[in-house]
Design brief:
Two copies of one chain form a homodimer. Chain A is mostly helical. In chain A, helix 4 crosses helix 5. The longest helix of chain A has 15 residues. The two termini of chain A are 29 Å apart. The structure holds a DNA duplex.
DNA sequence: ATAATAGTTGAACAGTTGTTCAACTATTAA
DNA sequence: TTAATAGTTGAACAACTGTTCAACTATTAT
Protein backbone atom coordinates (compact mmCIF):
# COMPACT_ATOMS: atom_id res chain seq x y z
CA UNK A 1 0.00 0.00 0.00
CA UNK A 2 3.00 2.25 0.01
CA UNK A 3 6.42 2.44 -1.62
CA UNK A 4 9.92 3.41 -0.55
CA UNK A 5 11.46 6.47 -2.09
CA UNK A 6 14.29 5.56 -4.38
CA UNK A 7 12.98 3.92 -7.59
CA UNK A 8 13.32 6.81 -10.03
CA UNK A 9 13.80 4.15 -12.69
CA UNK A 10 11.51 2.11 -14.90
CA UNK A 11 8.47 3.60 -13.22
CA UNK A 12 8.14 6.50 -15.63
CA UNK A 13 9.21 6.67 -19.23
CA UNK A 14 8.85 10.44 -19.43
CA UNK A 15 11.60 12.62 -20.75
CA UNK A 16 10.18 15.92 -19.66
CA UNK A 17 10.86 15.37 -15.99
CA UNK A 18 11.45 18.43 -13.85
CA UNK A 19 14.31 17.01 -11.84
CA UNK A 20 14.91 20.19 -9.89
CA UNK A 21 11.28 20.30 -8.76
CA UNK A 22 11.34 16.65 -7.78
CA UNK A 23 14.50 17.12 -5.75
CA UNK A 24 13.11 20.20 -4.01
CA UNK A 25 9.79 18.55 -3.22
CA UNK A 26 11.49 15.40 -2.00
CA UNK A 27 13.33 17.51 0.54
CA UNK A 28 10.07 18.93 1.84
CA UNK A 29 8.11 15.69 2.12
CA UNK A 30 7.32 14.51 5.67
CA UNK A 31 8.47 11.13 6.92
CA UNK A 32 6.85 8.29 5.02
CA UNK A 33 5.57 6.82 8.30
CA UNK A 34 3.87 10.05 9.25
CA UNK A 35 1.90 10.13 6.02
CA UNK A 36 0.88 6.51 6.45
CA UNK A 37 -0.23 7.19 10.03
CA UNK A 38 -2.20 10.21 8.88
CA UNK A 39 -3.98 8.18 6.22
CA UNK A 40 -4.80 5.50 8.76
CA UNK A 41 -6.19 8.07 11.18
CA UNK A 42 -8.35 9.59 8.48
CA UNK A 43 -9.59 6.17 7.42
CA UNK A 44 -11.09 5.63 10.86
CA UNK A 45 -13.32 8.67 10.34
CA UNK A 46 -14.07 7.64 6.78
CA UNK A 47 -17.10 5.53 7.62
CA UNK A 48 -20.49 7.00 8.40
CA UNK A 49 -21.35 4.37 10.99
CA UNK A 50 -18.27 5.27 13.01
CA UNK A 51 -18.94 8.98 12.56
CA UNK A 52 -22.51 8.48 13.81
CA UNK A 53 -21.31 6.50 16.82
CA UNK A 54 -18.79 9.21 17.69
CA UNK A 55 -21.41 11.96 17.42
CA UNK A 56 -23.72 9.94 19.64
CA UNK A 57 -21.06 9.41 22.28
CA UNK A 58 -20.13 13.07 22.06
CA UNK A 59 -23.65 13.79 23.30
CA UNK A 60 -23.81 11.14 26.02
CA UNK A 61 -22.30 7.94 27.34
CA UNK A 62 -24.26 4.99 25.95
CA UNK A 63 -24.44 1.23 26.15
CA UNK A 64 -24.16 -0.94 23.04
CA UNK A 65 -27.87 -1.57 23.05
CA UNK A 66 -28.71 2.14 23.17
CA UNK A 67 -26.42 2.83 20.24
CA UNK A 68 -27.86 -0.02 18.20
CA UNK A 69 -31.38 1.29 18.74
CA UNK A 70 -30.35 4.87 18.00
CA UNK A 71 -28.62 3.92 14.76
CA UNK A 72 -31.01 1.16 13.74
CA UNK A 73 -28.27 -1.43 13.56
CA UNK A 74 -27.62 -4.79 15.14
CA UNK A 75 -25.62 -4.96 18.35
CA UNK A 76 -23.07 -7.05 16.50
CA UNK A 77 -22.43 -4.43 13.83
CA UNK A 78 -22.15 -1.73 16.47
CA UNK A 79 -19.86 -3.84 18.60
CA UNK A 80 -17.51 -4.48 15.69
CA UNK A 81 -17.21 -0.75 15.02
CA UNK A 82 -16.75 0.01 18.73
CA UNK A 83 -13.86 -2.41 18.78
CA UNK A 84 -12.16 -0.48 15.97
CA UNK A 85 -12.74 2.83 17.74
CA UNK A 86 -11.41 1.36 20.97
CA UNK A 87 -8.27 0.05 19.24
CA UNK A 88 -7.29 3.56 18.19
CA UNK A 89 -8.20 5.02 21.58
CA UNK A 90 -11.07 7.15 20.41
CA UNK A 91 -13.55 5.58 22.83
CA UNK A 92 -13.31 4.01 26.27
CA UNK A 93 -15.72 1.77 28.15
CA UNK A 94 -16.81 0.85 31.64
CA UNK A 95 -18.69 -2.27 32.57
CA UNK A 96 -21.62 -2.32 35.00
CA UNK A 97 -22.97 -5.80 35.41
CA UNK A 98 -23.49 -7.08 31.92
CA UNK A 99 -23.96 -3.63 30.47
CA UNK A 100 -20.98 -1.95 28.80
CA UNK A 101 -21.06 1.83 28.64
CA UNK A 102 -19.01 3.54 25.95
CA UNK A 103 -17.86 7.17 25.90
CA UNK A 104 -15.34 9.34 24.08
CA UNK A 105 -11.77 8.78 25.24
CA UNK A 106 -10.80 12.46 25.08
CA UNK A 107 -11.52 15.74 23.32
CA UNK A 108 -9.57 14.83 20.22
CA UNK A 109 -12.68 13.78 18.41
CA UNK A 110 -14.47 17.05 19.03
CA UNK A 111 -11.42 19.03 17.92
CA UNK A 112 -11.05 17.11 14.69
CA UNK A 113 -14.75 17.05 13.98
CA UNK A 114 -15.23 20.78 14.36
CA UNK A 115 -12.08 21.48 12.36
CA UNK A 116 -13.22 19.29 9.49
CA UNK A 117 -16.92 20.03 9.67
CA UNK A 118 -16.19 23.57 8.51
CA UNK A 119 -14.39 22.15 5.51
CA UNK A 120 -17.30 19.90 4.63
CA UNK A 121 -19.79 22.74 5.00
CA UNK A 122 -17.90 24.96 2.58
CA UNK A 123 -17.86 22.50 -0.33
CA UNK B 1 -24.14 2.26 3.74
CA UNK B 2 -26.41 4.14 6.07
CA UNK B 3 -29.82 3.75 7.64
CA UNK B 4 -32.75 6.01 8.28
CA UNK B 5 -33.67 6.76 11.84
CA UNK B 6 -36.93 5.18 12.79
CA UNK B 7 -36.53 1.41 13.15
CA UNK B 8 -36.48 1.12 16.94
CA UNK B 9 -37.95 -2.32 16.41
CA UNK B 10 -36.55 -5.75 15.74
CA UNK B 11 -33.04 -4.35 15.58
CA UNK B 12 -32.34 -4.83 19.27
CA UNK B 13 -33.82 -7.35 21.63
CA UNK B 14 -32.52 -5.61 24.74
CA UNK B 15 -34.74 -4.80 27.67
CA UNK B 16 -32.34 -2.53 29.47
CA UNK B 17 -32.64 0.31 26.99
CA UNK B 18 -32.12 3.81 28.32
CA UNK B 19 -34.93 5.44 26.40
CA UNK B 20 -34.38 8.86 27.92
CA UNK B 21 -30.74 8.86 26.86
CA UNK B 22 -31.62 7.73 23.35
CA UNK B 23 -34.22 10.45 23.00
CA UNK B 24 -31.85 13.11 24.28
CA UNK B 25 -29.00 12.00 22.04
CA UNK B 26 -31.28 11.76 19.04
CA UNK B 27 -32.14 15.41 19.54
CA UNK B 28 -28.47 16.35 19.46
CA UNK B 29 -27.41 14.33 16.42
CA UNK B 30 -26.48 16.35 13.32
CA UNK B 31 -28.30 15.85 10.02
CA UNK B 32 -27.76 12.39 8.61
CA UNK B 33 -26.47 13.92 5.37
CA UNK B 34 -23.85 15.95 7.17
CA UNK B 35 -22.40 12.87 8.83
CA UNK B 36 -22.32 11.03 5.53
CA UNK B 37 -20.57 13.98 3.86
CA UNK B 38 -18.06 14.13 6.69
CA UNK B 39 -17.27 10.44 6.35
CA UNK B 40 -16.83 10.85 2.60
CA UNK B 41 -14.50 13.79 3.09
CA UNK B 42 -12.41 11.83 5.56
CA UNK B 43 -12.30 8.84 3.26
CA UNK B 44 -10.52 10.93 0.61
CA UNK B 45 -7.67 11.52 3.05
CA UNK B 46 -7.74 7.90 4.16
CA UNK B 47 -5.28 6.66 1.56
CA UNK B 48 -1.55 7.17 1.81
CA UNK B 49 -1.05 7.64 -1.92
CA UNK B 50 -3.48 10.54 -1.93
CA UNK B 51 -1.91 11.99 1.21
CA UNK B 52 1.53 11.80 -0.40
CA UNK B 53 0.27 13.47 -3.56
CA UNK B 54 -1.29 16.27 -1.54
CA UNK B 55 1.89 16.82 0.47
CA UNK B 56 3.88 16.92 -2.76
CA UNK B 57 1.55 19.48 -4.33
CA UNK B 58 1.61 21.47 -1.13
CA UNK B 59 5.34 21.93 -1.76
CA UNK B 60 5.15 22.69 -5.49
CA UNK B 61 3.04 22.44 -8.61
CA UNK B 62 3.94 19.23 -10.44
CA UNK B 63 3.16 17.34 -13.63
CA UNK B 64 1.88 13.77 -13.55
CA UNK B 65 5.27 12.45 -14.58
CA UNK B 66 7.06 14.29 -11.77
CA UNK B 67 4.65 12.90 -9.22
CA UNK B 68 4.98 9.38 -10.53
CA UNK B 69 8.78 9.58 -10.29
CA UNK B 70 8.63 11.15 -6.83
CA UNK B 71 6.29 8.50 -5.48
CA UNK B 72 7.70 5.58 -7.45
CA UNK B 73 4.36 4.78 -9.03
CA UNK B 74 3.06 4.44 -12.57
CA UNK B 75 1.53 7.46 -14.26
CA UNK B 76 -1.71 5.55 -14.51
CA UNK B 77 -1.99 4.95 -10.80
CA UNK B 78 -1.18 8.59 -10.11
CA UNK B 79 -3.64 9.80 -12.71
CA UNK B 80 -6.44 7.72 -11.21
CA UNK B 81 -5.84 9.26 -7.78
CA UNK B 82 -5.56 12.76 -9.23
CA UNK B 83 -8.95 12.29 -10.81
CA UNK B 84 -10.45 11.51 -7.39
CA UNK B 85 -8.77 14.54 -5.84
CA UNK B 86 -9.98 16.69 -8.71
CA UNK B 87 -13.55 15.45 -8.31
CA UNK B 88 -13.70 16.75 -4.75
CA UNK B 89 -11.98 20.00 -5.66
CA UNK B 90 -8.83 19.42 -3.67
CA UNK B 91 -6.56 19.88 -6.69
CA UNK B 92 -6.73 21.86 -9.90
CA UNK B 93 -4.76 21.54 -13.12
CA UNK B 94 -3.48 23.58 -16.03
CA UNK B 95 -2.37 22.18 -19.34
CA UNK B 96 0.74 23.31 -21.20
CA UNK B 97 1.19 21.44 -24.43
CA UNK B 98 0.88 17.81 -23.53
CA UNK B 99 2.02 18.38 -19.94
CA UNK B 100 -0.63 18.71 -17.23
CA UNK B 101 0.43 20.57 -14.11
CA UNK B 102 -1.45 19.86 -10.89
CA UNK B 103 -1.59 22.03 -7.79
CA UNK B 104 -3.67 22.40 -4.63
CA UNK B 105 -7.05 23.98 -5.24
CA UNK B 106 -7.01 26.08 -2.07
CA UNK B 107 -5.67 26.22 1.48
CA UNK B 108 -8.23 23.76 2.80
CA UNK B 109 -5.79 20.91 2.58
CA UNK B 110 -3.14 22.65 4.61
CA UNK B 111 -5.67 23.62 7.28
CA UNK B 112 -7.00 20.11 7.65
CA UNK B 113 -3.58 18.51 7.48
CA UNK B 114 -2.07 20.64 10.20
CA UNK B 115 -5.16 20.26 12.37
CA UNK B 116 -5.05 16.48 12.09
CA UNK B 117 -1.32 16.03 12.05
CA UNK B 118 -1.23 17.15 15.69
CA UNK B 119 -3.75 14.49 16.53
CA UNK B 120 -1.71 11.80 14.82
CA UNK B 121 1.47 12.92 16.54
CA UNK B 122 -0.09 12.67 19.98
CA UNK B 123 -1.19 9.06 19.70
C1' DA C 1 -28.00 -25.36 38.54
C1' DT C 2 -30.72 -23.22 34.87
C1' DA C 3 -32.46 -19.75 31.96
C1' DA C 4 -32.16 -15.31 30.19
C1' DT C 5 -29.71 -11.32 28.62
C1' DA C 6 -25.70 -7.78 27.19
C1' DG C 7 -22.17 -7.99 24.60
C1' DT C 8 -18.25 -10.11 21.85
C1' DT C 9 -16.19 -12.79 18.30
C1' DG C 10 -14.84 -15.29 13.92
C1' DA C 11 -16.26 -16.86 9.47
C1' DA C 12 -18.64 -15.82 5.42
C1' DC C 13 -20.44 -12.71 2.09
C1' DA C 14 -21.11 -8.84 -0.84
C1' DG C 15 -19.56 -4.43 -1.97
C1' DT C 16 -15.78 -1.29 -2.42
C1' DT C 17 -11.04 0.24 -3.35
C1' DG C 18 -6.34 0.82 -5.44
C1' DT C 19 -3.21 -0.82 -8.87
C1' DT C 20 -2.13 -2.85 -13.19
C1' DC C 21 -2.60 -3.44 -17.98
C1' DA C 22 -3.75 -2.30 -22.54
C1' DA C 23 -5.93 0.74 -25.41
C1' DC C 24 -6.98 5.23 -26.12
C1' DT C 25 -6.78 10.77 -26.92
C1' DA C 26 -4.22 14.91 -27.56
C1' DT C 27 -0.27 17.37 -28.50
C1' DT C 28 4.36 17.93 -30.44
C1' DA C 29 8.16 16.99 -33.61
C1' DA C 30 10.06 15.07 -37.85
C1' DT D 1 1.35 12.33 -42.64
C1' DT D 2 3.77 9.74 -39.27
C1' DA D 3 6.05 8.71 -35.00
C1' DA D 4 6.65 9.75 -30.37
C1' DT D 5 5.16 11.24 -25.90
C1' DA D 6 2.08 13.05 -21.66
C1' DG D 7 -1.67 11.78 -19.83
C1' DT D 8 -6.36 9.49 -19.37
C1' DT D 9 -9.55 5.77 -19.22
C1' DG D 10 -12.12 1.30 -18.51
C1' DA D 11 -11.83 -3.51 -17.42
C1' DA D 12 -9.87 -6.88 -14.56
C1' DC D 13 -7.88 -8.41 -10.41
C1' DA D 14 -6.58 -8.86 -5.69
C1' DA D 15 -6.96 -6.89 -1.24
C1' DC D 16 -9.75 -4.78 2.03
C1' DT D 17 -14.08 -3.36 4.55
C1' DG D 18 -18.63 -3.48 6.83
C1' DT D 19 -22.57 -6.26 7.92
C1' DT D 20 -24.74 -10.54 8.96
C1' DC D 21 -25.11 -14.83 11.16
C1' DA D 22 -24.34 -18.21 14.56
C1' DA D 23 -21.86 -19.46 18.36
C1' DC D 24 -19.78 -17.92 22.22
C1' DT D 25 -18.63 -15.57 27.19
C1' DA D 26 -20.02 -13.21 31.24
C1' DT D 27 -23.31 -11.65 34.31
C1' DT D 28 -27.85 -11.66 36.52
C1' DA D 29 -32.12 -13.68 38.12
C1' DT D 30 -34.98 -17.71 39.22
Amino acid sequence: MQQSFMPEIAVCDCESIHEDVIAAVRGQMPEEDLMIDMAEAFRIFGDSTRVRILFALKAHEMCVCDISVLLGMTKSAVSHQLRILKQVNLVKHRKVGRVVYYSLADEHVETIFSACMEHVMEE
